[in-house]
Amino acid sequence: MNIGWKEIKKNKSRFLILGSIVFLVSLLTMIISGLANGLSQDNAALIKDLPEGHFYMSEDAEETYNLSRIDTDVQNEIMNKHPDAVALSIQMGFLNDQDDKQQSVAFVTSTNSDLFEQVNKGEVIVDRSLKEKGIKTGDRLTNNQLRDELVIKGFVEQKKFSHAPVAYINREDYKKMYNVEQMQLVFIPGEDSAQSFTGLQSYSNKDFLSTIPSYNAEQMSLTMIVSFLIVISGMLFAIFFYMMNIQKIGLYGILKAIGIKTSRLFKMIWTQMFFITIIALTLSISLSHVFNLIAPEGMPFHLTIETTTQLSIIFLVVGFIGATLSGLQIRKIEPLRAIQQGED
Amino acid sequence: MTIFTLDEVEKTFTNGEIEENILKGISLSLKEGEITALVGTSGSGKSTLLTIAAGLQPASNGEVLFDGNNLTTMSDEQVRKVRAKEFGFVFQFAHLVPFLTVEEQLMLMLEVSGSTLSKKEQKNEVDQVLDVIGMEHRKNAYPSSLSGGEKQRVAVARAIIHKPKVLFADEPTASLDSKRSKDMMELIRYLTKKMNITTLMVTHDEEMLSYVDRILQMSDGMVLENE
Ligand SMILES: Nc1ncnc2c1ncn2[C@@H]1O[C@H](COP(=O)(O)OP(=O)(O)OP(=O)(O)O)[C@@H](O)[C@H]1O
Ligand SMILES: [Mg+2]
């Protein structure tokens, strides 16, 4: 007989309340995770979409990519050794559209590589978000540092840097705009460990992301909220079952006296915990994915099945730990106690 | 035939510095199918003796022998199995499981005792016992909707449904009025005689003694037998 289930059936409202709270907490967690993920995508999709590898910037740049200058000889040496390496530069700037409206963008230029869009001199490929601002293929845009116009050659999906849409331009144009010969960064894709080059410091993709101003601050505060919510959900279970157990000490004692195993009482709590959590999670997963679909265009919300699966597993594990901790007191209950106690 | 023997059982509780000798070497034996009453003043050690005999707490010294087994040397798990299979319990309060129906309480007991009957046979068994205690019509009721007497009857049914060898009852009538107490004793007597269950019962109530076969008088941790 599944006594855990029988108890839920008899005390529906009690378990409904716990279930609703777990549902709300897990929904909030998923929404915030979606937001964290969306923001990080909005902040650095350009970097996040790259394969695993290592970035190199000059040591004296002190982790600030736009102060970095890669020595041309060193760059050539690296490129010779690693044919798939790519040198790139990123600069925040503005494009003026045909109505002379300024659009903030991140200019990106690179040596020949599949990882970054390649354009001819006088052309530009921009992030799709500029399409919504009314910019079309063939439009002629201007930049204050550049005498010639840049023609929109096309759009790319979700390429952002530092919350600005990326604009891929040719190296010649980049050099004219910013008056620099050297590139800022070298990226070598591949799982191999970082290599050392004179005067350069290496960064994994993740480390490089955290050098982007605001990226870390943003992610850290959201991650913190998410972890708090997860801890709270664990405590919810611990406290709920603790209260229920306190009320049932007499009952547990009598059940032990008539010969029920302690492990069966634990299984009862676990059944209840899993039952509630799975229903609550099913609801919050569906709802947050619906939210993912209907979230307003401009809202940086991005929730993947992978994230929800991970969170669900964490919720189940944390709930299990909470319920088990509160159940530890059951082990200490002696059958005798119950008999000496009064009526239930 | 003797089924249950206590041999020089002692129990000492330590309250801080003070050692209190609650049971001072008790020897007694219970005969199969007999109802034995333990009487005595409050604090004389009746409940302590009953719970030691039932394997709910260990003795400090001495032996508890049941059906050829020595409970005092068994592991906790072994004692639990004996309790589940061979013993039945009734206490002052019914202590029913609040979220199980009357029928489910009894089904659970059958399951805990390791019954080998099929589900259908178990249900038949439950129906029969409910018929005997006159609670068939309430088999789908939850304890909260039962009267005190009804709850106690279900508790008795739960104590004997798995056909235990020994029934332990600690003041089973203390929460009932005089009329219901007598009904309860009649029921216990009827069931234990029918099923040949050996009964050890603690009671305060002189009136209940007419339903028992043998009376053991306890005083200050000792048994002074009388008839
Ligand atoms: N766990 C314990 N720790 C310390 N002392 C205990 C413990 N259990 C019982 N005692 C003491 O043992 C003595 C006998 O208790 P017991 O409950 O056996 O008495 P009783 O004869 O059943 O009394 P009553 O008729 O009131 O139920 C009492 O003085 C009690 O305080
Ligand atoms: Mg007592």
TrEMBL record, chain A:
Residues 224-335 form the ABC3 transporter permease C-terminal domain. It is a multi-pass membrane protein. One of its GO terms (cellular component) is plasma membrane. Keywords: Cell membrane, Membrane, Transmembrane, Transmembrane helix, Transport. It comes from the Bacteria. InterPro entries: ABC-4/HrtB_transporter, ABC3_permease_C. Its main location: membrane. Pfam families: FtsX. It is found in: Cell membrane. The chain crosses the membrane at residues 15-36, 220-244, 265-291, 311-330. Coiled coil: none annotated. The complex is composed of two ATP-binding proteins (HrtA), two transmembrane proteins (HrtB) and a solute-binding protein. Part of the ABC transporter complex hrt involved in hemin import. Responsible for the translocation of the substrate across the membrane. PANTHER family: ABC TRANSPORTER, MEMBRANE PROTEIN, HEMIN TRANSPORT SYSTEM PERMEASE PROTEIN HRTB-RELATED. Belongs to the ABC-4 integral membrane protein family. HrtB subfamily. This is Putative hemin transport system permease protein HrtB.
TrEMBL record, chain B:
GO terms for cellular component: membrane protein complex; plasma membrane. It is found in: Cell membrane. GO terms for molecular function: ATP binding; ATP hydrolysis activity; transmembrane transporter activity. The complex is composed of two ATP-binding proteins (HrtA), two transmembrane proteins (HrtB) and a solute-binding protein. Belongs to the ABC transporter superfamily. HrtA family. PANTHER family: HEMIN IMPORT ATP-BINDING PROTEIN HRTA-RELATED, IMPORT ATP-BINDING PROTEIN. Part of the ABC transporter complex hrt involved in hemin import. Responsible for energy coupling to the transport system. This is Putative hemin import ATP-binding protein HrtA. The lineage of its organism: Bacteria, Bacillati, Bacillota, Bacilli, Bacillales.
